[in-house]
Specification:
The chain has 26 helices and 21 strands. By secondary structure, it is α/β, with parallel strands linked by helices. Helix 18 packs parallel to helix 20. The protein is elongated, with a radius of gyration of 29 Å.
Length: 625
């Protein structure tokens, strides 16, 4: 027998459908390609909204026309009022309770795991308590065992489901404790959850999320309305001030958190002024995502007794205002990051993309900031820029101090200006720390450079600096480039002046931009070839002469002069090696640096790796539109 499943409604219904599919396949059924070839068509219904119910009626009619022999089964969240009519249209109705707790979900990367069903909140607009009943939590041991098995078989994104997951309790295990137990499981996976109720989002839950890296920093927290009178009529159990304080507390304790929400417009008696309170709240909070819905009465819910007095056209208008607000907020926050190892072709790719998408380029290269250091840092030429504005190139002299904090301040200011002018900012480069400072809004220690201390540290070899850093701050030493004197000196400077590890003072903040990170995926052989060719071009362009001119003005001991291409030429000019050996060393050191770059970038799972321009265009189009 072949089956086909159609799902309406929330993630809980989607999860039930996945489990139903597993149950049917266990009974020797096979999935059909479409409705026409199915012997059994199951429609997973959602009675929570009238629009979904209307779609079910229409779908049953279409199925009967396309495949008169198919048996039609209905299951899901069904109100008693709808059930009577569904019984006349379908061949059978299966209770959803017989499905969700008995079948195991098929293994895949993204997995939905119900941890509880039902709801005790009785929000006046909601039919869930009448379709799924009161809250019932699954045993913690059963959930842990299921997730352990899913992770073992390839599950990488585990989403815990419940109408109000915050209310979960199994014996002594509440929701924060359940998350802790899941986080202790072995394996490379991330845990998400939905949906949360603001009145039950506890300090303990915030602490648990903050302390466990395996728990997602994306939180769905429905607000529904920004007006206290409407919230009271909705029976939500909180006021606007309490919701705003909760958001503030979450963002303070969970750096980098992204908060999405649900909003209902046109609730009975909602005036235009009350709706504007919701618009104001959405603007103040700056939600990562908003799921807006126009109110529709559901039989059995308390609000069904209220007069549905907001015209359909007005509801549509208000919904559009909310969604337009979200679109405008996102459009003003868009940032495209193009990254990759040195000599991978990211600069030329960025120019092509910026040209197509009305963009400007902000450099994220820690060597190209220096004036007069053009050939050795492989700066893009005016011809290669192809008329695209480039920023943060040639901004300081080699003998000037320039910290990560200074870079971040300048980059953020420029990016916001580009956005304000209606263009798309492209952050382009291979300096991972520069990129991370902007994308993750790093809180960087505001420690002024100490010239005497720096002079003392700069007399040491890179190995000596690294050994000292390992003793003072092992966490930073584990991540830092051991060959980058400038980074080593700065990390030690902060540690020594503040008496605190550098790693404890650099934390992620609330993201300022909606960033898409695109990495250029290039094979090692191709990188080697690119490095060799670029090194030859540097020598042909006059790299030795450039370094000679710099040495006439600046000390060879400056951190800026320790970059690849400069330190090797200085060594050659001191008559300590041959020119041919210098070429080989520059190529070798550049390749080693490229490998370190890839190690850094591979740690960030948000990066989308592409092989060519076409793949990048597709990703960028999806992100922008």
């Amino acid at each position: 027998m072949k089956y086909h499943i159609i799902t309406y409604g929330c993630q809980m219904n989607k999860s039930d459908s996945e489990r139903l599919a597993a149950k049917l396949e266990k009974e020797k059924c096979r999935p059909a390609k479409d409705i026409k070839t199915a012997d059994l068509t199951v429609i997973n219904v959602c009675s929570v909204r009238q629009s979904a119910v209307n779609r079910v009626y229409s779908k049953i009619k279409n199925i009967r026309q396309e495949n008169h022999r198919a048996k039609i089964i209905l299951t899901g969240c069904i109100l008693s009022k709808d059930k009577k009519r569904f019984e006349q249209l379908a061949d059978e109705i299966w209770p959803i309770a017989d499905i969700s707790q008995k079948a195991k979900c098929p293994s895949q990367k993204e997995v939905l795991v119900p941890i509880m069903t039902g709801c005790n909140n009785f929000c006046s607009y909601c039919a869930v308590p009448y379709t799924r009943g009161q809250e019932k939590s699954r045993p913690a041991k059963e959930i842990i065992g299921e997730i352990k098995n899913l992770v073992k078989n390839g599950g990488r994104e585990i989403t815990l489901l419940g109408q109000n997951v915050n209310s979960y309790r199994s014996g002594k295990t509440d929701f924060p404790k359940l998350l802790e137990k899941i986080s202790r499981l072995e394996g490379n996976f991330e845990t998400k959850f939905m949906t949360s109720h603001p009145k039950d989002f506890s300090d303990e839950l915030i602490k648990t999320i903050a302390q466990n890296e395996k728990i997602s920093r994306e939180i769905h927290l429905p607000v529904q309305s920004g007006n206290n009178q409407i919230l009271k009529k909705m029976n939500r159990g909180y006021i606007v001030g309490q919701y705003k304080n909760l958001i503030k507390k979450i963002r303070k304790n969970i750096p980098g958190v992204k908060i999405s929400t649900d909003i209902i417009v046109g609730f009975p008696t909602e005036t235009k002024r009350q709706f504007q309170n919701t618009v104001k709240l959405a603007g103040e909070i700056g939600f990562f995502q908003i799921y807006a819905a126009a109110y529709s009465p559901r039989p059995g819910a308390a609000a069904a007794k209220m007069k549905d007095d907001v015209p359909a056209g007005e509801k549509k208008r208000r919904k559009k205002i909310i969604l337009d607000l979200l679109s405008a907020h996102k459009a003003n926050k868009k940032l495209i990051v193009i990254l990759g190892p040195t000599a991978s072709g990211k600069s030329s790719l960025a120019v092509r993309l910026a040209k197509k998408f009305n963009g400007e380029i902000v450099s994220a290269d820690s060597r190209q900031i220096y004036k007069g250091m053009d050939i050795g840092s492989a700066k893009i030429t005016p011809k290669e820029m192809a008329g695209i504005p480039h920023h943060l190139i040639d901004i300081v002299r080699p003998d000037q101090d320039f910290t990560l904090a200074q870079y971040k301040r300048r980059a953020v200011k420029i990016i916001k200006d580009i956005q304000r002018r209606g263009r798309i900012p492209f952050l382009v480069g291979g300096t991972g720390l520069y990129i991370q400072a902007v994308v993750d809004n790093l809180k960087i220690p505001s420690v002024e450079p100490d010239k005497k201390l720096r002079q003392k540290l700069e007399k040491k070899t890179n190995q000596e600096l690294f050994n000292q850093l390992q003793k003072l701050d092992p966490s930073t030493a584990q991540k830092i480039d051991q060959n980058n004197q400038r980074r080593l000196v700065r990390a030690l400077e902060v540690c020594l002046l503040t008496k605190k590890p550098f790693s404890e003072q650099r934390k992620k903040g609330r993201p300022m931009f909606d960033a898409l990170q695109i990495g250029l995926k290039v094979g090692l052989d191709e990188i080697k070839k690119g490095i060799t060719g670029r090194t030859e071009k540097m020598f042909e362009a006059g790299l030795v002469k450039e370094v000679g001119k710099l040495l006439e003005r600046y000390s060879a001991n400056l951190p800026a002069m320790s970059g690849i291409g400069y330190k090797e030429i200085i060594f050659y000019l001191d008559k300590k090696t041959t020119l041919e050996k210098t070429r080989e060393l520059i190529s070798l050191h550049t390749l080693q640096y490229a490998r370190r770059q890839m190690t850094w970038f591979k740690r960030d799972k948000r990066i989308h790796w592409v092989k060519n321009y076409s793949q990048a265009v597709k990703l960028l189009s999806q992100h922008l539109h």
